Amino acid sequence: MRVIYNERMADLAHLLGEMAGLAGSAMDRATQALLQADLPLAEQVISEGDRIAEMIADAEEKSFALLATQAPVAGDLRQVVSAIQIVNDVNRMGTLALHVAKVARRRHPNHALPEAVNGYFAEMGRIAVSMGQGAKEVLESRDPERAAQLNQDDEAMDDLHRHLFTLLMDREWKYGVAPAVDVTLLGRYYERFADHAVEIGRRVIFLVTGELPPDADAES
Amino acid sequence: MRVIYNERMADLAHLLGEMAGLAGSAMDRATQALLQADLPLAEQVISEGDRIAEMIADAEEKSFALLATQAPVAGDLRQVVSAIQIVNDVNRMGTLALHVAKVARRRHPNHALPEAVNGYFAEMGRIAVSMGQGAKEVLESRDPERAAQLNQDDEAMDDLHRHLFTLLMDREWKYGVAPAVDVTLLGRYYERFADHAVEIGRRVIFLVTGELPPDADAES
Hints:
Two copies of one chain form a homodimer.
Chain A: H1 2-36, H2 39-47, H3 49-70, H4 74-107, H5 118-141, H6 144-169, H7 177-209
Main location (chains A, B): cytoplasm
Function (chains A, B): Plays a role in the regulation of phosphate uptake.
Keywords (chains A, B): Cytoplasm, Phosphate transport, Transport
């Protein structure tokens, strides 16, 4: 029983990690589509959303089957409960990448972003990819130090997000309201993407140490 | 065993319902604080966030204890798994109400909203309260028809949200960029609040019918 449980839990953690990596890759391409007003790339990201949705359903069923057939207890049970919660986070990460791609599609053939903020979004995209990869590694290694690194990435993301808002609120902002609305929503998508990666790290830290660090979005 | 399970599950569903109702009430007062630039009311909502956080931790522990001590199977197991997922939704509803209150606090003594959009937010606040109450009733009654009504409220919310964006994107928008940024974020908070209430309805429909309706935010 225990051998089968360990195999299936490793399989589930691998699937969750794969999805976090895919969400990071989707955010990477969505960011490129946004920066280059690249419609085919945006469409590609959007059409891959169905594949992520299938993997989510698969992960939910695998978690449920683990509970139903292996009846795990104590620490093993906590792992499965965490997996059920983490499925939601990777699902949101994927959906947020799709939202970015949809903004790129909606504004095509125009660029959604004024050139002045391209650098911010290029950097937020880079951090998002790194966090998707980080969440993947944390899920597969369960290393609390790697999980803590996600917080550093998240702080960098929050810094960029704050700078972006300073820019928007400045009298010098000369691009008008419509791009400001897009920039506001897009900034929120990247920030929430990062929050979900941090949330995955929190859940893993909780599994390993028994302590749950504070919620990222609750502070903002 | 089964009698104890039923009692504890009813207790957990009641706790989740209570939290959904509290999130609705928090959104109600946050909306009043926003519309009237009422700082004490905003502070009250924010300080009650700790109470919701405690209830969240309590609900997570109760779900875990149900799995650990009652070892539910089949439909009973699905109920507990759904409860674990629903905890996340009520948690987000509470956090989003807090975000609205924090915008009211940040802009005080000014009003965050230009008067022209007050009517939209009054109505979005009204729908949010109704959806918090609806989610509460659905959790306690498990009535799929009541759950489906949440979708109608959500459509009304989406309509208001779309109108709001039309207003923002219009050349006639004369309030400048800073209020547009606040309106954009606030609109997103109400929309997501509604999505989470719908998500609770979806989970309940799934429990009762075995079919999971499509995800609300994935469509937008």
